[in-house]
Amino acid sequence: MDDSAPAVRPGGIVGVLAVAGIVAALMQTLVVPFIGEMPRLLHTTASNASWVVTATLLAGAVSIPVTGRLGDLLGKRTMLLACAAPLIAGSVVCALAGSVIPMIIGRGLQGLGMGMVPLGISALRELLPPERLGSAIALISASMGIGGALGMPIAAAVAEHASWRVLFWGSSALSVLIAVLIWRLVPPTPPQARGRLDVPGALGLGTALVCLLLGVSKGADWGWASATTLGLLAAAAVLLPAWAWWELRTAEPLVDLRVTVRRQVLFTNLASVLVGCAMYAQALIVMQLLQLPGATGYGLGQSMLAAGLWMAPSGLTMMAVSPLGAKLSAAAGPKVTLGAGSLVIALGYGSSTVLMGSTWGLLVITVICNAGVGLAYGAMPALIMSAVPASETASANGFNTLMRSIGTTVSAAVVGVVLAEMTTSMGGHVLPSEAGFRASMLFGCGVALLAAAVTLAIPGRPARPPAKHAAPAGRPARSAA
User: With CB atoms counted within 10 Å of each terminal CB, which end of the chain scores lower, N or C?
Assistant: First the structure.
């Protein structure tokens, strides 16, 4: 057997890649307990401090398609190690930061490491025997939710009992550990594609995404009718078609749009946007309900640490249902698993009509919703990888992860608008009203039902991955098979 045979230590490979995904996802929620204190800690304004969160979102969205394509060109293991470098550097920069600019730079570097999850999923196709692939994909897909859910109580505990810098020193140590484990336990993965990185395509997509996500995520702060917001959204509306025009005409595109418009890939990505939207809405709603004062009549008066602990089981639920999702996909196909997951999410939101008034009720809501998310997230990479050539596995998974991120950004914007418009006054403070929270729950339910409907358009049988051709438009056409 070859020294780099992928099936030598499948358990160790899956464990390392799952932990890598959890650590990468942890970076997104690390600073949430500190957001209110950031202006004081960094001697800045609340508006400037909000960039500590936005920087990670933007850096991750821009870098994931690029790291995915480089994974196909250079090898997934190589790029997994490369993604660990900005996680380490960003954590150290944040730990040493004394003002807002270094903190934003560090958080941006941490965002560059978010490509670990789609890279890890893509690497499984090369490193595992077919019989282990489904369950491993489901577990690593769930790692994003696990990391996000566990990050909140961990960060809150540190916020209450230690310096905030401890949090970043801890994340830097975890990132170093992950890099060492990948180096020691993950076998080399040879490049699956030839050519070079589409730099104009990367710059075009990155610029368009920054305009789109910045406009959507900051629209509520700047004003939806402000010149800045409208200008950014208009720029995105111009840049995205221009980028698509370029991708269809270049010989070595960053994202092969001819593959992404195949029915199975297109509708899986569309469902991914909707599931990402539904997943994030309940996290935003429940965390606020848990912490609002009990005197409101609907708030539950929990501390940040207690609220994080109430949310933690939902992330663990995603890990628990991943084997079930893999079995369902093996028996009925990943399309069925994606549709079932979307319906379970809708059921979780629907249960809020009677369960929203207590901590235990909110726990049940989040557990049901995240069980559905675990099923859906585990099915998406399976659908994508069964419809794309091996030379584009990482690129296609990276693009799918980007679709989920766009969904979460849209969700944050919509829920933010609903809660800002439906308010009540208490003690001279304006707070989101109970009606606003219930309307936001209905939004999440509707989005999840729409995701289930979109799933019906996915072909019943996995598509055969098309042969890879490199001819741009105007040259011999690529195979449509």
Answer: N
